[in-house]
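Protein in question passed on here:
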Amino acid sequence: MNNEKDRVTIYQVAKAAGVSLATVSRVINKQGSVTPATRKKVEDTIASLGYRPSGLAQALATNRTTNIGVVIPSANYVYIANFLNGITDVAKEKGYSLTLFSTSHSREEALQMIEKVISSHVDGAIIFDDQLDSEDISHIASYNVPAVVIDQKVSGEKVANVLFNYDAILDQTIKRYYSRRGDKKMSFLHVHNAGRLLAHAEKKFIKAHEEMGKDYAIINCDDSYTRTYNYFCEYFKTNRKGFFIAYRDSIAAAVLNAATDSGLNVPKDVEVMSLVGTKYAHIVRPTLTTFSIDMNEVGKRAMYMLTDLLNHSLVEKTAKFDAELVRGGSTIDRSGSDPDYR
């Protein structure tokens, strides 16, 4: 599927052909009365300019704009902003309008938002909320509204899924750390109500350690840079060594900075890794090792899948994005000569 924006617009076609927008739309959609000569002139112009019809042309034919509802947990997180940028790029290309519905770490609020989305008579929906369980999400399939659900598997005639896979790279990273003489105790930073992605990663973290018979720790911390930084400044007064896996870059940066300000060396004494990598991983010193998924591309893929759902042409209803390890200076490079461990 081509992800590039249309270089030529319907406005340019109309101007070059010397006709109205409505006439171009009627030719594209094969609707209404257009003389053979005018139709040929418009079709020749479309061919010469290389124009590809979008949702905007279809909207002009029906005097309506396709409205897409987008449910997100919060626009404050960088990875969500990147996700929205991808959605917006495709929405502009297709001539769609977007309505955002933001929740805030509450299952009840998320359910209310979905009800609100459906009742607002949107043409389609993209739902990305970590607080909803499988039963909640499955309920979406009962609505007669095309929907793309992010990071949750749902079956239904008008439902598609975009799934994330952190399991493989997290399991591989932990096991190779110990197999290559990793000598620090690993700790997973548990953030209350952080959602399904973090909870699933925590289970994988525990399982990997149990399979290897290795000791580990789960540390409760707030989803706040300042409070996490203050906590670890105290923590490092008595604990001078460790390997920490955090949820987001800001939390990982808090641990990294607290270690440095406590006189510890990163990564010799303390190693830090972030599950959800963003641009901030590259602006701290040392840079952060992260697991990364291109959320801009996720947003684009979700919107293209929804477009095909709206057009009854979606064949593959599941898209999968595998996280990749992006190595920074916050962990020791133990990759050696193994090309599979980057």
